[in-house]
Design the sequence.
C-alpha cells in the first residue's frame, strides 16, 4: 500500500514544469518514484510559416543554455532542405563553434553544478555545497573552472561574433570567415583549458575510487545507447551517422539521421507530458536507450584525439569493455568529451582550410525536407523541417536531447529513491541524491525563460489521503 | 540599507585584488536579464533600451546586437542568463543593477531588492542567480559591488518581442527609479 507521496518541484517555469514524486509505503520505504516533465511543444507550431533560412536565428531563442546547438542543428537542417553542401571551411568553423559550446557547457556542469556534490559530498551542508564552498576545498581549481567555462564561451564569441543570439551559420555555410588574430587568441587559452580538464578527470577518478560502492549502486541499470559516430565509429559531436548499440555494446543500427523516423518511435505515458523515445524494433520498454556523454562513449569504438582516446581506454575497462551503465559515470564521460573537444579545437585551429574565405555555397538543389542532427552537450538533437518550394516551413519536428533520456531519468529517480530515501523523516541528503540522479543527465527543461520567483524546491510528504505531513523547501 | 561596496574581502586571487582595484570603474553596470523574444521575460532588455535612449543612444531592435554606448555614468549589458564568469565582469564595478522579470509569486509590480552575496543553488539546471554571481565575485576576487535587483512583474510570456501592455506600463517607472539610483552617490 502506498501511504505517502513526496513531491519535489525543482523547476516551475513559464513553459516547462518538472517535478519528482516519491510514493512511500507505510513502513517508510519507497514504493515507486517518477520524474515528470511538462514540456511546452508550442515552439514547433511557432516555427511553421517561417522561412527555412530564418531558423538558425529563431531556434537559439528556444533555450539560453544550448543556443549554439539549436543554431547549428537548424543550419544543418537548412542545408538538407535546400540541398546544399557547405564548403569545408564553413564545416570546420561550425564545428569549432560547437566545440566551444561543449567545453563551456560540460565545464560548467561538472565544476559548478555536479562537482560540489562529488568533492564535498552528497550529505555536506547545503549552505556550502556549491562552487563557493568548493573554493574553500580547492581555490585554484575553482578559479580554473570559471576560466574553463569562459574559454568555451569565448570560442563561440570569436567564431560567431556575438555573445548571444548567433547569426553565424546559415543554410549552405556561414557568414563570417575567421581572422588570424582570433585564431591566435583561441590558441592562447587552449593549453590551460586542457590542463583544467585533466585535473577534473583526475578528480572524478579519485572520487570514484573512494566511492565505488555508491557508484555501483547509484542508478545502475541497463539500456541501449545512441549517438553520432564517425565513419570508423569514432566519437563524433558535430556530424556523422547515428549508431545505436544494445546493452552489451553490440550494434543494432547504423543509420543516417535523415531516416530517424524509421528507427525510433515515441511512447506517451499518462504521468509525463514529455514523450519517451525508444528503438522501434525492440519495442517498448525494451528499446529504451540513453544519449549524452555516457551514451556517446558507449556507442563509439574509439576517440580520434590522443589524450581523450587514452582516457576512453581507461573508461572502457570499467565494465571489461562492455557499456558503462552506472549513471554516476556520466560525469567521467562528460570530462572525457571535454578533453576531446579541447583537443579537437587544436586540430581545427591547425587546419589550413579553417582560414579560408570560401564559406558559403549558394548553389541550391531544393529538396523540401531535411533533418539536421548534432550532438548537443546533453545528447542528440534533431531538427526536422518540411518546406514549400519558396522555403516557407510547413511542418517542424524537434527531438531534443532531454527527450531521449526521459525514461532513463525517471528510472534513475526511481532507483535512487528506492536505494537511499528512507522515511518517515526524509533528510536533505536523501533529496539531494535524487536530484543528483537527474543532474547527472544534465537535462534542459525548456529553459528559455528565467523569470524570478519560480525556482523553489519543494518536497512534500503526503499521506495516503493526500494530507501534507512534511515539507522541505529550498531554492 | 544597501550593502556597501567592499574591495577588501579575502578573495582567492588576493585580498581585495590590488590590480582590480586600480582598474575599478566608478560607474554603474546595468545588466538586463531574460529572453527578449519571450515577451515580458525580456523586460530587462527593454529597460536597457530606455536607459540608452535617455542618454542619447539608440539600441538596435535586435537583442543579439551589442549595446554600444559611451557614458561616464553607466555601462549596459544584456544577457539571456547569468553565468559564472559574470563574476569577473561585475568585480570591475563599484555598483551593479540587475534587471529581470518576475511572476505572480512576487506580489509587488516593481520589486527593488538590495542584494548581499549568497550562493543560491540551482538543483537541476544551469541557472544562476544574481546573488550567486555576487557570491562568486566576493569569494574569488574579494570584491562586492553595491548591488540591487530590480524586477518587474511579467504577465505574458509568448513568443514575441513586444511587452504586454501591463508590463510595458511599468517599465517607464522602473527606468526612472533606476536612473535616479544611478545618479545618487555611492552608499
Sequence:
Amino acid at each position: 500500500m502506498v501511504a505517502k507521496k513526496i513531491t519535489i518541484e525543482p523547476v516551475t517555469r513559464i513553459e516547462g514544469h518538472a517535478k519528482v514524486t516519491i510514493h512511500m509505503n507505510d513502513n517508510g520505504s519507497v514504493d515507486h518514484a517518477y520524474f515528470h516533465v511538462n514540456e511546452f511543444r508550442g515552439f514547433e507550431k511557432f516555427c511553421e510559416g517561417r522561412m527555412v533560412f530564418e531558423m538558425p536565428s529563431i531556434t537559439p531563442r528556444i533555450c539560453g543554455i544550448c543556443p549554439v546547438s539549436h543554431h547549428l542543428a537548424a543550419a544543418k537542417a537548412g542545408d538538407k532542405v535546400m540541398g546544399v553542401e557547405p564548403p569545408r571551411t564553413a564545416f570546420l568553423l561550425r564545428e569549432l563553434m560547437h566545440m566551444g559550446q561543449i567545453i563551456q557547457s560540460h565545464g560548467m556542469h561538472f565544476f559548478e553544478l555536479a562537482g560540489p556534490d562529488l568533492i564535498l559530498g552528497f550529505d555536506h551542508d547545503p549552505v556550502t555545497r556549491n562552487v563557493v564552498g568548493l573554493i574553500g576545498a580547492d581555490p585554484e581549481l575553482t578559479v580554473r573552472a570559471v576560466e574553463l567555462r569562459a574559454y568555451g564561451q569565448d570560442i563561440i564569441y570569436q567564431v560567431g561574433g556575438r555573445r548571444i543570439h548567433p547569426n553565424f551559420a546559415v543554410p549552405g555555410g556561414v557568414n563570417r570567415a575567421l581572422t588570424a588574430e582570433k585564431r591566435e587568441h583561441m590558441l592562447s587559452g587552449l593549453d590551460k583549458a586542457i590542463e583544467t580538464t585533466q585535473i577534473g578527470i583526475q578528480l572524478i577518478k579519485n572520487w570514484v575510487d573512494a566511492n565505488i560502492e555508491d557508484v555501483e549502486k547509484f542508478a545502475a541499470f541497463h539500456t541501449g545507447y545512441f549517438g553520432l559516430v564517425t565513419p570508423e565509429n569514432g566519437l563524433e559531436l558535430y556530424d556523422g551517422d547515428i549508431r545505436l548499440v544494445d546493452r552489451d555494446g553490440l550494434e543494432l543500427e547504423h543509420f543516417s539521421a535523415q531516416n530517424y523516423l524509421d528507427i525510433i518511435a515515441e511512447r506517451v505515458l499518462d504521468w509525463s507530458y514529455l514523450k519517451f523515445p525508444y528503438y522501434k524494433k525492440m519495442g517498448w520498454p525494451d528499446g529504451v536507450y540513453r544519449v549524452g556523454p555516457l551514451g556517446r562513449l558507449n556507442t563509439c569504438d574509439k576517440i580520434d584525439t590522443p589524450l581523450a582516446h587514452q582516457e576512453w581506454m581507461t573508461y572502457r575497462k570499467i565494465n571489461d569493455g562492455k557499456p558503462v551503465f552506472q549513471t554516476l559515470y556520466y560525469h567521467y564521460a562528460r570530462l572525457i568529451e571535454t578533453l576531446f573537444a579541447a583537443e579537437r579545437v587544436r586540430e581545427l585551429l591547425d587546419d589550413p582550410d579553417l582560414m579560408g574565405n570560401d564559406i558559403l555555397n549558394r548553389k541550391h538543389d531544393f529538396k523540401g525536407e531535411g533533418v539536421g542532427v548534432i550532438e548537443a552537450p546533453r545528447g542528440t538533437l534533431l531538427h526536422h523541417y518540411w518546406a514549400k518550394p519558396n522555403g516557407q516551413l510547413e511542418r517542424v519536428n524537434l527531438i531534443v536531447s532531454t527527450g531521449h533520456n526521459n525514461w532513463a531519468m525517471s528510472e534513475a529517480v526511481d532507483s535512487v529513491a528506492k536505494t537511499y530515501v528512507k522515511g518517515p523523516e526524509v533528510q536533505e541528503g536523501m533529496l539531494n541524491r535524487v536530484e543528483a540522479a537527474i543532474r547527472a543527465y544534465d537535462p534542459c527543461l525548456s529553459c528559455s525563460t528565467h523569470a524570478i520567483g519560480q525556482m523553489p524546491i519543494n518536497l512534500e510528504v503526503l499521506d495516503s489521503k493526500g494530507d501534507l505531513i512534511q515539507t522541505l523547501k529550498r531554492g | 540599507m544597501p550593502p556597501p561596496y567592499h574591495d577588501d574581502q579575502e578573495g582567492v586571487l588576493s585580498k581585495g585584488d590590488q590590480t582590480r582595484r586600480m582598474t575599478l570603474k566608478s560607474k554603474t553596470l546595468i545588466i538586463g536579464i531574460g529572453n527578449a523574444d519571450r515577451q515580458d521575460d525580456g523586460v530587462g532588455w527593454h529597460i536597457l533600451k530606455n536607459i540608452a535612449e535617455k542618454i542619447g543612444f539608440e539600441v538596435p531592435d535586435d537583442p543579439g546586437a551589442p549595446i554600444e554606448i559611451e557614458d561616464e555614468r553607466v555601462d549596459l549589458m544584456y544577457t539571456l542568463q547569468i553565468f559564472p564568469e559574470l563574476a569577473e565582469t561585475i568585480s570591475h564595478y563599484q555598483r551593479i543593477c540587475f534587471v529581470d522579470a518576475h511572476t505572480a509569486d512576487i506580489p509587488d509590480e516593481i520589486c527593488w531588492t538590495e542584494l548581499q552575496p549568497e550562493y543560491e543553488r540551482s538543483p537541476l539546471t544551469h541557472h544562476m542567480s544574481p546573488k550567486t554571481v555576487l557570491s562568486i565575485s566576493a569569494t574569488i576576487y574579494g570584491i562586492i559591488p553595491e548591488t540591487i535587483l530590480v524586477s518587474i512583474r511579467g504577465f505574458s510570456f509568448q513568443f514575441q518581442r513586444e511587452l504586454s501592455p501591463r508590463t510595458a506600463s511599468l517599465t517607464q517607472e522602473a527606468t526612472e527609479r533606476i536612473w535616479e539610483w544611478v545618479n545618487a552617490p555611492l552608499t
Notes: Chain A touches chain B through 60 residues (CB under 8 Å). Residues 9-16, 453-459 of chain A have pLDDT under 50 and may be disordered. The domain at 42-362+398-404 of chain A is CATH 1.10.645.10 (Cytochrome-c3 Hydrogenase; chain B).
